[in-house]
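Action item from last week, closing it out:
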Amino acid sequence: MTTGNEKKPSLFGLITSPVRQFERMGKRPAIWLPMVIVLALSAASTYLNVATFYSSVQRFEITAYFQSLSILLDILKTGIFFFLSALIFWLIASIGGGKTNFLSMLSLSIFISFIATSGHVINNLVYYVSEGKHEAPVTSLQGIISIGEPFQSMLGVFDIFTVWPLILIGVGLQHAGGASKRASWIGVAVLFALIFLVASLFGLAKAFFSATF
């Protein structure tokens, strides 16, 4: 049973004391303010990326149009991602014996996205400051090791802001969702395998088109 005296989880507290935030999340999930913050970060990341890409190849009027369209599409995509990932977390927690609700898992999804989106902002800020000269993410092995496709895309999976959220998902499913440790980490392993598979297929496609055209 929850009471009004219980504190809501904090986005920035997720960095210093994640377990405490997840425990609060299970009792009193925070939704709206964290969602607005993450959507704003995501929009800023998209703006930096698009502004850098189009600045050297398009006129300002077209740039402004694509920036606005890209930001709107990104907000829509991020919002859909919140709900789909929350559903996946709820299913994993339920299968793992947890007694949780969709709102707690939606809160978990938003908080995890805060970490991942922060990584996107950092990488796109570097991309913007370097005027497009540094395209590889500085937070992943892609930015350290130079190698051809499909291995370059595979290395992109080993990113601080990909691995860190996955670890937080495993912890969050236990403390916010009540899932067993075994079910939580199996779920995380499956998610990582899917991310790696998608990256590998993307890398293979890039290698194929590069060799063909």
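Closing note: The mean pLDDT is 91.
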